[in-house]
Amino acid sequence: MNKTIIIGAGIIGMLTARILCKAGISVTIIEQGYAGQESSWAGGGIISPLYPWRYSEPVTRLAKWGQKNYPENLNEIHLNSGVDPEYTESGLLYLDIEEELEQASLWEQKQGYDFDTLSGEDLRRIEPGLGLAPDSDKTGWFTPSIAQVRNPRLVRALQEDLLRLGVTIEQQTQALSFISEKGCVNGVLTDKGSFYGDQVVVAGGAWSARLLEKWIKTPKIAPVKGQMIVFKAEPGVVSRIVLSKGRYVIPRKDGRVVLGSTLEFNDFDKTTTDDVLQELRQEACRIIPALRNYPVEKQWAGLRPGSIDGVPYIGEHPELKNLYLNAGHFRNGVVIGLASCQLLVNQLLGQKAIVDPIPYRLTEERLVSDSKDIDLRLAI
Ligand SMILES: Cc1cc2nc3c(=O)[nH]c(=O)nc-3n(C[C@H](O)[C@H](O)[C@H](O)COP(=O)(O)OP(=O)(O)OC[C@H]3O[C@@H](n4cnc5c(N)ncnc54)[C@H](O)[C@@H]3O)c2cc1C
User: Fold this and answer.
1) What's the mean pLDDT in 106-134?
2) pTM for the complete prediction?
3) Which of 178, 192, 207, 242 gets mutated to test ligand 1 (max ligand atoms within 8 A of its CB)?
4) 359 CB near ligand 1 (under 6 Å)
5) What's the pLDDT at 371?
6) DSSP letters of 96-118?
7) Mapping DSSP to helix (H, G, I), strand (E, B) and coil, where does residue 96 land?
8) Amino acid 134: pLDDT
9) So what's the pLDDT on residue 378?
10) Taking the domains of the chain in order of start, what are their residue ranges?
11) Is the CB of 49 under 6 A from ligand 1?
12) Phi-psi map region of 183: left, alpha, beta (phi>0 left; psi -120 to 50 alpha)
């Protein structure tokens, strides 16, 4: 194989391109909008699933591989691109998980993470800005090794890195269908003409099923909107990622604080709403009261590529040879993305797989004719 076409320039398409390119493969990415401007731009960049003990083993395996290998990869991307993705080990502090404490501790011990159970006094000491009463006996739970990246910077760094490596990114070019001969894909038809390659990878995020279902059976992938806000705060207002009752605050290096996020099931609609703005602002101030002194600088929404169990689809499509998929990363595309791209490249290049590929395959049971018949609420 010497030429691959990738559909979609989100984090998944770009990381796949990077690994292939470094292995000597010529890569063209086809992107209907602009590189890295969809879910991969919109996300929080936490390099851990939220409440990781709730996820299945296949998600955990990819997450752990990513957590181990991100520092070196991001350092290379930073050096080659000149853009700092702000990889920061800020640690993840959980509040209000009393009911799950035992399950969480057992899981983290088994997986080999360091964690501390914190008393109210410990909490006030390590994160003085938390909204705790002075005599609160609330307990917290802290995993110090969890890191974050800043998504808009990560996608900019990746794009610049790819351009310097020699990857072609065709922006504002929409893939419409596949070119095939005798059940074998050898190209992509777009609104700007045809592109030929030995293999085609669909990394179209939330739009992947919409492209596939016109032609062949598709895995279950549907958009799940997440709205976020960012406060223009100052360094020191909060230092750790804090997760409480499904909402999280993420402190960025320059003092800005991101608050996320909603889970909304309303098709491809990315509009933001005032009621969510008010609700997110209120939640942010519940977790860190000092945030009420700072303005909300921006509100936005992104469409997660939702899949039934959060396990992405990675591998060759059973109906068309040389057509591969890497999509459906749902809430965890950053943390599990690096491993999922490496696993796909292992398959494309006939290499030994970094993890067992079977749970991610596009088996008949995981394919449907119409991706609208999916209840993604099951996945949360
Ligand atoms: C609010 C929010 C918070 C999140 N927080 C986190 C987090 O903290 N940690 C974490 O790990 N994950 C998080 N995620 C999830 C993560 O961002 C996604 O799983 C990940 O970005 C998916 O990457 P992707 O490349 O598959 O999709 P995308 O980034 O959406 O990229 C897909 C690309 O394909 C293009 N495309 C689609 N169809 C076509 C076509 N026919 N032709 C050409 N181009 C096409 C699109 O334009 C798009 O650019 C969050 C997501 C959201 C929305």
Assistant:
1) 91
2) 0.97
3) 207
4) no
5) 58
6) S-GGGHHHHHHHHHHHT---EEE
7) coil
8) 77
9) 47
10) 3-83+151-219+308-379, 92-144
11) no
12) left
